[in-house]
Design goal:
CATH topology of the largest domain: Immunoglobulin-like
Strand order of the largest sheet: 20-22-26-25-23
Oligomer: single chain
Number of helices: 7
Shape: globular
Helix content: 10-25%
Largest sheet: 5 strands, antiparallel
């Protein structure tokens, strides 16, 4: 064989290898699927000017940065194909050179240049793909990982018994899927409706409600029963036994009698609230003789929060007797909260205060969530991260005072009725005339004070409440608030509420000085008075001014995320609503998520859980607003293309007690909604910019008249009168029409 033929064949083998390798690499990078996205068809946006308690909005976006990166990816893919073509062209020149040295050299140069170009293109593609993935995760427009360590909780795949969150269950701690939870944590559950504590709690300590109205153990209003004898200090109730009316002591549910290790506490009904390791057997195990041999449900003490004049119970704090999990490994736990039923012939289940099944409207008849405990014990104290109003700032007297902590705190110690006659004294005003109620929200991190002193009406006709100003002729009055810390907790019984004061879910006392030093709890004198020594750490204390004026300006929605009429919304996309003013957080739980469109969904109701942040203008610290983020079940599960309508109602109120009415919100993706109100009459609209409903629609439909009010306004085909609906339910029904919200791939109106 001639030398040049030998050389050609050798070079041909290298050329073929290079070409085949280049084809494989380009195929791998260009044709490998990118992260998929839930293709949610555009949802009409509904910012309803509606009947007083039915104002609706729809929010649903692909971030412009993600769109740009996708375009870059496509261009790089095309460039990679072009580079591959150059490599193939160089190889062809060598293969058909006929032994001509100049053609072989030229072909080699073309291949080398093509490979270099291909390497640069693939590097750029890799970087672009990395940036795209990060942007998708950050903006919620792609399928991101759950962030859970260890096995994914089953409900993340099946959505079993999850729909009650936001409907029956208002909030709970730990959160769904939360990881690395401290082993010594408590579990808190808040219901949307008042429930019967006897359906959740066993009166293990045999206590009764006090009858004489005096404070019991450290401010509690219960005492030990004395075998149902007359004049034992217990309230009496009449029960029917064997057809006869019998007078008995009224049991008290949710407290401890005694101190420290001697305390005897009420316990949770483990058939109603079941706490156990996620992989344990479903229920108690019995032998053939009927004896209990194993019970995977963890025993726990339980405390109930009695709210308001009617002593309604919605919130419970449950402390397992033993620490959860293991000091050596992470462990998944599940909590099940059951509606009414029977187990081994015994009735169980959560009942409302109206004596009905709390889960009566829920097809699963229970709610279940999972969380993972780490190996650590929490010894870090909570701190105060923000207060409203800020130190030294002023607010109108119908504003709502709030405190936000660094972590979830024990709801038993931070919410309660405040008055001269009440037993609650963990957070008090320097002004003795203040009365009302502290209420917790925002994942058990924010506490708000709601005054009970009426002072006017808002645009919905609801009563507005004010902080008192002693001198009606004065421009303002100085205010101060004291937040009392707890004492160190020694065991589960002591952590059941024996020692009042602010603490976190693990029993760590408030570090009011935020210095990491345990300064202890200052001595308390008169529980209703701010003592001079109590302004020191580890209590927290701040001062502000209350202006002798009332703010009646309604709030509106400035921005929403995802944007109006957005498509390609990620399955875990964050839902965000930015209001024009600081809001009363308790009223924002009315946010709703409607899911519809296309084929039958066949999934559990979508769950929702709002959280909140307050932001202030750096140039104008008095100009503050609330941003609401709604956590939710994944959008478009199991590859379905669905529509989503996010609804808000006029029951939502600003911190000054003004309702979300008229329901202004952004009209399109390009600008924020802006509403200007009259200086002389702050509830009258002067101008509306880039909002729906428009200023003209508000004027035409007489927004101050419930009979003429419009209940549904959205951006598509606004010239069509059918797009203005009388109320929220009719609006949602209209949006579900296939002509308005067509199945995937079909045109709409």
């Amino acid at each position: 064989m001639l030398p040049w033929i030998q050389q050609y064949m050798y070079m041909n083998k290298k050329t073929i290898a290079i070409v085949m390798f280049s084809i494989a690499v380009v195929f791998l990078f260009v044709f490998t699927p990118s992260p998929t996205f839930a293709q949610n068809d555009p949802a009409p946006d509904v910012f309803g000017v509606t009947d007083f308690d039915e104002s609706g909005t729809v929010l649903v976006s692909t971030d412009i940065r993600v769109i740009i990166m996708r375009i870059i990816n496509v261009l790089l893919g095309l460039l990679g194909i072009a580079m591959l073509g150059i490599v193939i062209y160089g190889g062809a020149q060598i293969m058909f050179s006929g032994g001509a040295e100049d053609k072989i050299v030229n072909g080699k140069k073309i291949i080398v240049n093509g490979v270099i170009g291909l390497a640069i293109t693939l590097s750029a593609f890799t970087i672009a793909q990395f940036v795209l993935n990060k942007l998708s995760a950050a903006t919620g427009t792609g399928r991101t990982q759950t962030g859970l360590r260890g096995p994914t909780p089953p409900e993340e795949l099946t959505f079993t018994a999850s729909g009650a969150l936001g409907r029956v269950i208002k909030d709970h701690y730990p959160n769904r899927g939360q990881t690395d939870v401290a082993r010594n944590t408590s579990i808190s559950i808040t219901f949307t409706e008042a429930v019967d504590p006897a359906s959740i709690i066993l009166n293990t300590n045999n206590s009764c409600e006090k009858d004489n109205g005096e404070e019991g153990l450290d401010g509690e209003d219960f005492i030990p029963q004395d075998l149902n004898v007359p004049n034992n200090g217990c309230k009496k109730i009449v029960v029917v036994e064997d057809g006869e009316n019998i007078q008995k002591d009224k049991p008290f549910y949710g407290g401890c009698l005694g101190n420290g290790a001697e305390a005897v506490c009420d316990t949770v009904n483990t058939a109603t609230i079941r706490i156990q390791k996620a992989d344990d057997e479903e229920g108690p195990q019995f032998n053939e003789a009927g004896d209990l041999i194993e019970n995977p449900r963890l025993p726990a003490i339980v405390y109930a929060s009695y709210e308001g004049a009617n002593r309604e119970v919605k919130t419970f704090r449950i402390k397992p007797i033993e620490n959860l999990g293991s000091p050596e490994e992470h462990v998944w736990h599940k909590v099940e909260v059951w509606g009414t039923g029977t187990e081994d012939g015994v009735e169980f289940g959560v009942k409302t205060a109206r004596d009905t099944n709390a889960f009566g409207a829920d097809p699963d008849n229970h709610y279940m969530w999972e969380f993972e405990t780490g190996t650590n014990i929490d010894t870090t104290p909570p701190t105060v991260v923000s207060v409203y109003p800020a130190v030294g700032r002023s607010i109108p007297r119908n504003d709502t005072v709030s405190i936000t902590f660094s972590e979830p705190v024990d709801p038993m110690e931070v919410q309660g009725t405040l008055s001269q006659d009440s037993s609650f004294h963990n957070m008090i005003f320097g002004n003795a005339d203040v009365s009302g109620e502290w209420k917790i929200s925002n994942g058990y991190k924010t506490v708000e004070f709601y005054s009970d002193q009426a002072c006017g009406k808002n645009t919905c006709g609801d009563t507005v409440y004010c902080l008192p100003v002693a001198d009606i002729a004065a421009e303002y009055e100085d205010y101060e608030i004291l937040v009392r810390t707890a004492t160190p907790q020694q065991n589960a019984a002591a952590f059941a509420g024996i020692s009042p004061g602010v603490m976190d879910m693990a029993g760590n006392m408030l570090d009011g000085g935020d210095d990491g030093v345990n300064d202890g709890k200052p001595v308390v004198g008169d529980k209703k008075v701010v003592g001079e020594n109590e302004r020191d750490p580890d209590n927290y204390h701040w001062e502000f001014e209350v202006r002798n004026e009332i703010d009646l300006q309604p709030p509106y929605i400035k921005t929403v995320t995802p944007l109006v009429d957005a498509q390609d919304v990620g399955e875990r996309a964050a839902l965000k609503v930015t209001f024009s003013k600081v809001m009363q957080l308790q009223t924002l739980y009315d946010v709703g998520i409607e899911e519809y469109g296309g084929a039958e969904v066949n999934l559990a109701s979508i769950w929702k859980r709002p959280t909140f942040e307050r932001s202030c203008d750096q140039n104008n610290p008095s100009n503050c607003h609330t941003e609401m983020t709604v956590q939710h079940r994944v959008f478009g599960p199991q590859g379905k293309d669905l529509y989503y309508a996010i609804t808000t109602t006029s029951t939502m109120k600003s911190s000054t007690g003004n309702c979300f009415y008229p329901g202004f919100g952004p009209e399109n993706q390009n600008s924020d909604c802006a509403v200007t109100y009259s200086q002389e009459f702050p509830y009258l609209v002067e101008s509306v910019t880039d909002c729906i409903p428009t200023e003209e629609a508000v004027a035409i439909n007489a927004p101050n008249s419930a009979n003429n009010d419009t209940g549904c306004a959205y951006t598509i085909n606004l010239q069509n009168n059918e797009n203005m609906q009388p109320d929220r339910d009719t609006c949602v029904e209209h949006l579900q029409d296939p002509g308005i919200s067509p199945p995937s791939g079909q045109p709409g109106q």
